[in-house]
Amino acid sequence: MTVSTPLLVTFLAYLLLMIGIGLWAWWQTKTFDDYILGGRSLGPVVTALSAGASDMSGWLLMGLPGALYATGLAEAWIAIGLCAGQYLNWRLVAGPLRVYTEKTHNALTLPDFFTHRFDDQARILRVLSALVILVFFAVYCASGVVAGARLFEQVFGMDYATALWVGALATIAYTLIGGFLAVSWTDTVQATLMIFALVLTPVMVAIGAGGLDASLVAIEQVDPSRLSWVGAGGMVAVVSALAWGFGYFGQPHILARFMAADSIKTIPAARRIGMAWMVACLGGAIAVGLFGIAYYAQHPELAGAVNENPERVFMALAEHLFNPWVAGVLLSAILAAVMSTLSCQLLVCSSALTEDFYRGFLRPAASQRELVWVGRAMVGAVALLAIFIARDPDSRVLGLVSYAWAGFGAAFGPVVLLALFWSRMTRNGAVAGIVSGALTVVLWKYTGSALYEMVPGFIASTVAVVLVSLLGKAPAPAIVATHKAVHAELRQHGY
User: Fold this and answer.
1) CATH homologous superfamily of domain 4-401?
2) Gap between the Cα atoms of 403 and 408, Å rounded
3) Chain-centre distance for alpha carbon 41
4) pLDDT per residue as tens digits for the range 273-317
5) Domain locations in the chain?
6) What DSSP string describes 358-381?
7) What pTM was computed for the model?
């Protein structure tokens, strides 16, 4: 038996399980509502793990450990910012969004929610937000495709171009077949795999490096600055890393999980499960990157591939420290992380194209069956675009993710928060917020500033929403009445 045989068997078994769940979901999917939101039927465990897995993409097992390996402990501020942001997202957004979307014509997508929240007859918000989703998700999906390609490249020795297609097609298959239910249940399996990998691997790496104390000594010998909480970028880098947390308020693929919960009563239990899972996973990813420095300092003969591309550190450690069968399961966890997020993103893009363009403008009277099949076609179309963007072999997962994350966080984050809690907000305020947030993120790149584009983008969007709303005419009484009804219901549930 060659080394690759166990890997091949475990990978195939995992892929067959995912496609099996996709086929089961096919039989459960009768309407477009089922395809996009699973008929709002998710319980607390699936809601929590699906929200977590759709968030933590290939960057969790590749980008973050790679950043820690290359730079040191200063990169851990990203994880701290994300934990704080996700907790606030569960506390502030999950429950209100679940109630509000139901009261605004049972909104299925974020553009749909904005349209009905502000009674946008001209449908400017629908088009604008759908365009922002498509632009930034194309980049985000590309990051997932790159991560999948890196995995197949490393494990099976494929060339990058072949690996690109193999990794992408595996995800497209079950997303296209089963829609939201398939994505959510596969997310749950994938989240379980990810936490297993991120609890087990750092323990084995620390043991392989001689224990905790020996690891810290080895890291200090390589470079003492790797153990500093403030790296070469100073406080600007720390603020930039913490600012990742603001992104949660505007991520359509995570917000869709909140909309799909079976009721607002599900949210508190889902929050506890989701946060516990997230803290464990991020802690594990940090430990893998940090202890990886110590391990490869002691075994420099094995470090060639990792030094060439630090984002390979988790994959290399799995292959060097574990039995091939266990390594196969651990590497399947990377595929799980990639697939869980990519599938959610493909589905959100598909829903934006189908619900907000096709049904919204071209075929308002389209049947449910027609919409489901158009949704499937859109999954394929977006996937092909992502593959095209990801074709550069020098693409870095974390770089692509950070840009798309900032785009959504700045364009939608302030708009979502203020739409949920501020009754005076207007349609034009929402338009101004989305445009100013997205443009600031795109243009900030050209300033040469080290500050993460999320920070100026979020501030610009918030200011634009408030100023334009206050300068314009107050919202119609019916809109204010709906807002009051939502908050009356929320108070009944302790919000």
Assistant:
1) Sodium/glucose cotransporter (1.20.1730.10)
2) 9
3) 21
4) 989 999 999 999 999 999 999 999 888 888 888 888 898 898 888
5) 4-401
6) IIIII-TT--HHHHHHHHHHHHHH
7) 0.84
